[in-house]
Amino acid sequence: MEQYTVEQAAGILGLHVKTVRNYVRDGRLPAVRIGKQYRIAKEDLAEFAGLPVASPARRHAEVSSIVQIDGIARDEMDRVSTMVLGGLAGRPHGLRVEFVYDEERAHLKIIVLGGLEASAQVLRIVDALVRE
Description:
The protein has helices spanning 6-13, 17-26, 42-49, 74-86, 116-131, and strands at residues 3-5, 32-34, 37-41, 62-70, 96-102, 107-115. By secondary structure, it is an alpha+beta fold.
């Protein structure tokens, strides 16, 4: 939680330091006393000043993964790629799935980039197809 000193709060509000200190002492501006100084929470200062309180940043996590399947013929690779993409009905926003097939070595690489749940869904589909 971001906090301001009385001096910083005064600068933000465009007020004299003594005025802000009086607001704190009067209880009009919530603050916490640490040693001989007050600390004012960013949210409390925004509310006091009538400013919109910024919502906390939402965490976002993504997955980058490569699945390699060895010993797979061209027709089987076509089936796997069709089934994977078909299993993602309406492909989730931000999900990217690519297929790279090396016919000479008979291996397929599936590159998955996206959110955790969508990527997990792709991996579950691939796992089910490989186990068949």
